[in-house]
Amino acid sequence: MSVDYQIHDLGNLTLQRGATIRDCKLAYKTYGQLSAAKDNVIVYPTWYSGQHYDNEWLIGPGRALDPAKYFIIIPNMLGNGLSSSPSNTPEPYNGPRFPQVTAYDNVRAQHRLVTEKFGIKHIRLVVGWSMGALQTFHWGALYPDMMDLLAPFCGSAKCSRHNYVFLEGVKAALTADAAWKEGWYTDKPARGLRAAARVYAGWGFSQAFYREQLDIKTLGYSSLEDFLVAFWEGFFLPKDPNNLLTMLWTWQHGDISDNEIYNGDFKAALRAIKAKAYVMPGQTDLYFPPEDSKFEVENMPNAKFVAVPSIWGHFAGGPGTNPVDVDFIDSKLKELLAS
Amino acid sequence: MSVDYQIHDLGNLTLQRGATIRDCKLAYKTYGQLSAAKDNVIVYPTWYSGQHYDNEWLIGPGRALDPAKYFIIIPNMLGNGLSSSPSNTPEPYNGPRFPQVTAYDNVRAQHRLVTEKFGIKHIRLVVGWSMGALQTFHWGALYPDMMDLLAPFCGSAKCSRHNYVFLEGVKAALTADAAWKEGWYTDKPARGLRAAARVYAGWGFSQAFYREQLDIKTLGYSSLEDFLVAFWEGFFLPKDPNNLLTMLWTWQHGDISDNEIYNGDFKAALRAIKAKAYVMPGQTDLYFPPEDSKFEVENMPNAKFVAVPSIWGHFAGGPGTNPVDVDFIDSKLKELLAS
Asked: B297 is in which domain, residue-wise?
């Protein structure tokens, strides 16, 4: 089977929490051409369970992320099934033995891709949705001199306690299924995946989204139950449970200051971000509420708070679900890139 | 074993959806003395999984609900383990065969208690938290000439679509456990109960509650994980799963207009409520957001919108968890009772 993406071989990748992934693979895809001066680079990390395909909605001719102008790199997150993951790693680090990976580990690996593979020294923009925003913040804090611009949207620089609790619910629902077998499943724990999907459904979109019946009136599902089955269960069922749990752990432990540079000083890590940033929460996002973004912006030297005026909850940010929100985000990225 | 409550025998109770509970029991407790004129009555229904004990935090000397002045009746909801429930009903309607009960059924049964048992013709106030608020709205719509005052807090007259989805997540988590056995469990499905508890944890309190670490700083838990285990799992584990699922169904299908009087016309049912009402949502309640209360108030002829200024989410309303909120609600009830 031919694939449409490339692999950067990281060799033995020693992780922040101590384990080493042997022969670690970073899957990525690029769009557009790297200029001779290597000054047209955009890095655009993936989100929870997403793969590079799921990021493409923001890229295109006439868009801010226009491949005619920019060289756009989408690195796949470790654990997402394309980069090294529980589902594709050989024994003994396969399945539930796949090690704990942090956003720090991911961004360190992405930095190697950008520098080792392409010889890139400077990045114009790092941008990402949700866990992609978490990685975007990490880029800014870990390599503050490397980029001009940052645009994290519908995400945070540190997993909040409430967000952590929401994810505990998703995890508990998935792992309540006996077929999960502590990760050593032989058959898909479908009941657990469906339960996780239903838990997620209340969080993904806002109260107002459901009140206005946008699942039916805009997205075209035939009923609320049809939306829960076709959209939500359909979204979770094809995904590998151990991959989901690996990325969930990454998300829960995301924190730009949890490393040897900032030693847990979150404000110091925010202050260190030099890039001009548009921090763009969804106005009705239930797990990345605008209040958390405001705190980040207040502590970043060169950031602007730009709420996405939308009742689409977390999905104001992606993945291209609502065209109106896509246009809003695209216009803000154009503004940022023009500055 | 002696009990501290009474049983009103409802005989054969035919339910709105068609089934009949034979020898149906309504458990209740009263506080204070019924006056000779029978004009000092307060009805105070229970909430999801709560029993009359769990309502007592709002009752006491010097409180609005003062037993020295009022005759307070707490009827236990059908399915709550004291009134007829899956856990205490004999074959063949036991366990998962316990029929679907609506809030309409509950309030019809409570009306029989109030009139048949006590000969009460007029009620001063109906008040309730959460599903207790749902029943309070039902009292107002089903018996509009019977009471002076209504005070539903942190609840709604109709289960919103988003609230329905949140409950789908709780249900899916509980029933993902193979030990649940479609309701024919022999051993407690502890894993499912714990999962349901963790799902609920993110909804019960607000983002700000967790951000401010009130679980530790105010409630005194030793860590977030301690709060999830000791408070949340501890809350769910003792409860009967079929009882929980019965009440969850009642909640999801709550709607004051879903009956032969209003035939689904929600605005007409709201307009029919004659009582002076304080509708009091929690300002940060994630599943009964103030917007839904505003809609209700706008369509009720004699209602006032009174948001509880609290970051305690749904628990701004109860069950007595935050003394500041208790005082606020108590003061508003005093104001209402004085009018």
From this structure: 6-159+256-338
